[in-house]
Write a structure and sequence with these properties.
The protein is of the alpha/beta class and 313 residues long. The protein is built from 14 helices and 10 strands.
Length: 313
C-alpha cells in the first residue's frame, strides 16, 4: 500500500441520525457529542439524532452538526490505530481535517463553525442566493460564461464555487445570475445544470463580509502547526503552518473549493488510499471520478469503521 489520505465531507452530507451508532458504542465518540453540547449551550446531539431535518439543514446548525458527527467517527477510527499521511476536507470539512491534524481543538472548532454558519447565513438575505451543479462543462469556458453573465449587472453575479471533479462544477451567486447560467449552460459545453437546495451563495465574493467576521472570530482562537500536511481548499496545496492556515480559512469562505485539484495533488504524492470519514459518500464518488486506480473507503458508521480496520490490519 502507498500513502493514505483522510478526507472529510462538507455541507450537504448531513442526515438525521448520523453517527448515532458510534455515540452509542464508543466512549470517545460520545464525548465528542457531549463536548459540542456543552460548548454550544444547547443539545446539538438531540438535533442530530432526532431532527427535525428542516432545522438540521439550517447552515448555522448543519456546520457544527456535521463537524461533530465527522469527528466522532474519526475518534472511533483513531482508536483502531489507523493513521494518515495527509488530510483534506471539502469546504466545511476542512475544519474536520484540521482537528484530525491537531491544528485546532474540537471544542474551538465547533464554536468557530457555528459562528461561520451564522455569518454565512446572514451575509446575503434569504432567497437571494442560489447554487447549481453543472455537468460536463469545460472549466475555463464556464468561468468565461460566468464573467459574461455577471457583467450584465449587480443582480446577475455568478461565479465558480466548487471545482469538484472532471465534469462536475458547482456555480454560485445571485438567483438571477444562476438562472441565466442554467439557461445558457450549453455555451460552456455542458450537458445540463441542476439547481441545488441551499440557503446562500456560498464560496463567492458575496461572502466577503462573512469572511471578515470569521477572521475576527478566528483571531482569538489558538491554532497549532499541523501534525500532517492538510491540503487547503483555496490553493490545492499542502499547508502546515498555523498562521497560514488561519489566513486560508478566511479566504476559503469566498473562494472556489479546488477539490479536483486537491485529489490530483494527493495522488501525485503517492496517495493510493482515500478514507472518507463522515456521513454520506459524496467525496468517495468525486474521488472515483478523478481516478479509477485509487482505493476509496467510507467510514460513515460503526460497521464500515470495523470493516476498514479489518481490511487495513
Amino acid at each position: 500500500m502507498g500513502k493514505i489520505a483522510f478526507v472529510f465531507p462538507g455541507q450537504g452530507s448531513q442526515a438525521v441520525g448520523m453517527a448515532k451508532d458510534v455515540y452509542d458504542n464508543v466512549t470517545s465518540s460520545r464525548h465528542v457529542f457531549e463536548t459540542a453540547d456543552e460548548k454550544l449551550g444547547f443539545s446539538l446531539s438531540s438535533l442530530i439524532f432526532d431532527g427535525p431535518d428542516t432545522e438540521l439543514k439550517q447552515t448555522k446548525n448543519t456546520q457544527p452538526a456535521l463537524l461533530t458527527a465527522s469527528i466522532a467517527l474519526y475518534e472511533a477510527l483513531r482508536e483502531k490505530g489507523i493513521t494518515a499521511d495527509y488530510a483534506a476536507g471539502h469546504s466545511l470539512g476542512e475544519y474536520s481535517a484540521l482537528v484530525a491534524a491537531g491544528v485546532i481543538s474540537f471544542e474551538d472548532a465547533v464554536a468557530v463553525v457555528r459562528a461561520r454558519g451564522t455569518f454565512m447565513e446572514e451575509a446575503v438575505p434569504g432567497g437571494r442566493g442560489a447554487m447549481a451543479a453543472v455537468l460536463g462543462a469545460d472549466r475555463d469556458q464556464l468561468a468565461q460564461l460566468c464573467e459574461k453573465i455577471s457583467a450584465q449587472g449587480k443582480d446577475s453575479l455568478v461565479e465558480l464555487a466548487n471545482l469538484n471533479s472532471p465534469g462536475q462544477i458547482v456555480v454560485s451567486g445571485l438567483k438571477d445570475g444562476v438562472a441565466q447560467l442554467i439557461d445558457r449552460v450549453k455555451e460552456a459545453g455542458a450537458k445540463r445544470a441542476i439547481p441545488l437546495e441551499v440557503s446562500g451563495p456560498f464560496h463567492t465574493s458575496l461572502m466577503k463580509e462573512a469572511a471578515a467576521r470569521l477572521g475576527d472570530q478566528l483571531s482569538s482562537v489558538e491554532l497549532r502547526d499541523a501534525s500532517i500536511p492538510v491540503v487547503a481548499n483555496v490553493t490545492a496545496e499542502p499547508v502546515t503552518e498555523a498562521e497560514v492556515i488561519r489566513e486560508l480559512l478566511v479566504q476559503q469562505v469566498y473562494s472556489s473549493v479546488k477539490w479536483e485539484d486537491t485529489v490530483e495533488w494527493l495522488i501525485d504524492q503517492g496517495v493510493d488510499t482515500f478514507v472518507e470519514i463522515g456521513p454520506g459518500s459524496v467525496l468517495s464518488g468525486l474521488i472515483k471520478k478523478v481516478s479509477r486506480t485509487v482505493t476509496v473507503y467510507n467510514v460513515n458508521s460503526l460497521d464500515s469503521l470495523n470493516a476498514l480496520a479489518a481490511e487495513l490490519k
